[in-house]
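The data are set out underneath:

___
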Amino acid sequence: MFRTLRIASLAFICSLCLSGCGYNEFQRLDEQVKAGMSEVLNQYQRRADLIPNIVATVKGEANFEQETLTKVIEARSKATSIQATPELINDPAAFARFQQAQGELSGALGRLMVVSEQYPNLKANQGFQDLRVQLEGTENRVTVARNRYIKTVTEFNVLARSFPSNLTAMVFGYPVKPNFSVQNEAEISKTPAVSFDKPAPK
């Protein structure tokens, strides 16, 4: 009887210690980070699924700037070749490669949309305009999902670096998690200069 009470008391004390040192908070935030990353990946996949239809529509436009189209195709291929799973957050190097590939695809798509404005037939093509609206909506969803992920990871990393919860992080293997960087995003989103070797069709 006494032994049972002693074991129960020790278990109770241990649970209080784990709670007090942030263990439960690590569990909660770790699940939120995984869920956040899953949503980011879902939105990036949604975008990737739209691109073949956009490319097919643009290919139908005579004399469309092929270099711009090719860069979109290549960027999509590179982005989708990376095995994107929530476990990316446990591999900073893989996460960085994934982020770079998605950034390149964002830049290539942005340039494609700017160039398409120079083609009256595309501007008048309802199918293309519908795809454009879908793409813009998806880009907005990507931004929202990324911002939620960034907020949760920031909260997790503060916990992992703060005392005494940093001791819990070391004991139970909760290293800081990689976050999306804003580096070069201004450059990626900047409207590119469009030049043609010959005038766009009227």
